[in-house]
Write a structure and sequence with these properties.
Blueprint (H helix, E strand, L loop, with lengths): L3 H13 L2 H15 L1 H21 L7 H20 L1 H41 L6 E7 L2 E7 L6
Antiparallel strand pairs: 1-2
Helix pairs in contact: 2-5, 3-4
């Protein structure tokens, strides 16, 4: 049997060469090299720090100044999120993340399915003279074993 770690490395290489990851890498490079977008992000972070500093003043905070910082922060955020480079990056990131989650799901199912099938196989070995019935007790569904029934 092939070494599992080597197979995992091969899977990793296949994932990062997938078109979704190639698109993400391209969008990431565009994002990183867009000076205007990076400036907006810096402005947003500065406004966020100003809001946090003003809020930490407690009773001494200036509500008017706080609102001004919050408005500037919202305005900058809107500019960032409407930037086409940011939109391309976010879309590529969401698609790559969804792809990775799909791969994790497949691996998880493959690992856990073996246990599920073993459980179901053992369940079939129970005596046919027993089965579960549902009954309502205190408004909840509870399972009880009935010795007079057969398993379907």
């Amino acid at each position: 049997m092939a070494d599992v770690r080597e197979l995992a490395r091969q899977l990793g290489e296949a994932v990062v060469t997938d078109e979704k990851f190639v698109a993400l890498q391209s969008a990431q490079a565009e994002y990183d090299n867009d000076a205007e977008l990076q400036q907006l992000i810096q402005e947003f972070n500065l406004q966020k720090m100003n809001v946090m500093q003003e809020m930490q003043k407690g009773e001494e905070k200036n509500e008017e100044k706080l609102k001004e910082h919050q408005d500037k922060m919202r305005e900058t955020y809107t500019k960032i999120m409407s930037d086409p480079v940011m939109d391309k990056y976010m879309t590529a990131k969401e698609e790559a993340d969804a792809f990775v989650n799909e791969i994790y799901g497949i691996l998880n199912f493959a690992i856990r399915a073996r246990r599920l099938f073993r459980f179901l196989r053992n369940l079939r070995r129970l005596p046919l003279s027993r089965r579960f019935k549902e009954r309502k007790r205190d408004g909840e569904n509870t399972a009880v074993v009935s010795d007079d029934a057969t398993v379907c």
